[in-house]
Amino acid sequence: MKLELDSQLSAHCESGATTNLLNFYKIQMNEPLAFGIGAGMYFGHLPFLKMNYMPVTTFRALPGLVFVRTCKHLGIKYFRKGFKDPEQSMIELDKVLETGTPVGMQVGVYNLPFFPAEYRMHYNMHNMVIYGHEGDKYYVADSVVAGEHTLTREELKRVRYPKGAFSPKGKMYYVISVPETVDYKAAVLKGIKKVIFEMTPPFWMVGVRGIRFLSRKVRSWPKKLGVKMASRYLGQLILMQEEIGTGGCGYRFIFAAYMSEAAKILDDPKFIEFAKQVNDIASKWREFSYQGARNCKERSGPEITYDALADILLEVADKEAQLYKDLKSHLRTHYNM
Amino acid sequence: MTDEKPTPQKPDTDNMEVKMDFEILHYSIDKEGQWDRKMLKNWGAKEIVNAQTWAIVQERIDEAKQKVLSGEMSPIGFFMVKCIMDVKLCAQFTGFSKCKVKRHMKPKGFKKLSAEKLQRYADTFEITVDQLVTLEEQLKKEPKTVA
Lengths: 337, 147
Known about the structure:
heterodimer; A: about 325 residues; alpha+beta; Cathepsin B, Chain A; 2 domains; six-stranded antiparallel β-sheet; 8 strands; about 50% helix; about 15% strand; B: about 150 residues; 434 Repressor (Amino-terminal Domain); two-stranded antiparallel sheet; 8 helices; elongated; disordered N terminus
């Protein structure tokens, strides 16, 4: 049995999976919209979490949250659960597929056969949609890697139960029922409000304060770690920003597209300005990654000083802080939120 | 099972070539504030950073090889690096505790391993027990092609 799922490609795997799932239920959705309503924008520098021996910097919300929030904000009933026993999870998956429901799931990338080899790290926050199975063969719609893919039951079980940080433990999610009419306006505003809340928290490792925290850290790297390790830490940071989760510039470009989409839905030209503002921020992030990458080649000394990089980060933090301030006051004055 | 060849389950970290043909959607905003998206092969600092990541892995593998040959480390340490794991991850995959994995990483601890425990490690690294036990001889014979 194979469901008719119109699989669209996307930049961010989870908002792509959400888009594909909701499009199946005839809810008009595109990737920036799913990403924004699900409040996928985030920042956190978490030195206590190590990946590949290096501290984790995340530009995305916790895996699964984009889908959950999009459904909550749109008033859609959903199911999301992990399983302790792999066999049980596969039986449950088969049952749900039999009822004609496409199922999204969080998987680890390392054992995923169709994923490009150079990206197959122990990274457990990838999302994809299963839309049918015939015996041993499961049809997979992956929103990042183009083309039709199939996985065997054994392979699927492997990728659903990887180990390491943020192990999915067989998490799967699907839509139970959708309302007849969907209120996009309220959902869009809720999404923006959530992003503002998450990016300006009273905690120093996440949000705008997190960017400043990272800036301080970047400044101290060459003294603390030496030239070689500092260059590696920087490489890991840029890898997170540009590639892992494959958003490009920490998803800021998608958020800019969301602002532009919000202007259409809310019929408010002010959001076009916000879109340009976010685009500006994204360009600044990209400048950081371009400049930083010059230090990532194996050389005796750094080409650009880490102080200069830290200054770019401070500039980004100032710009982002200004953006959330503007957004907040705009929401308060025009929408009473 | 069918007679199809099994697809390789894990990436070959020893001779990884960073290919540049993987395309990703990219968003952009034009002057009127409209968004557009297109597939791009090359973006940002992709090439340099990705190459650096694999160079680090390669360096760790070479280091581990030397250590195995000089008798400082057991084959488990080598294959752990080859599967891009650290001690914590290896402990989670195999089900041993972290300090046990550390003990097994030393030649002395490795010699005491029972057949069952060796099998557990071999399953994790997706190799045969034979490959695990005879790693040192293989490295001496042809240092380039192992597993």
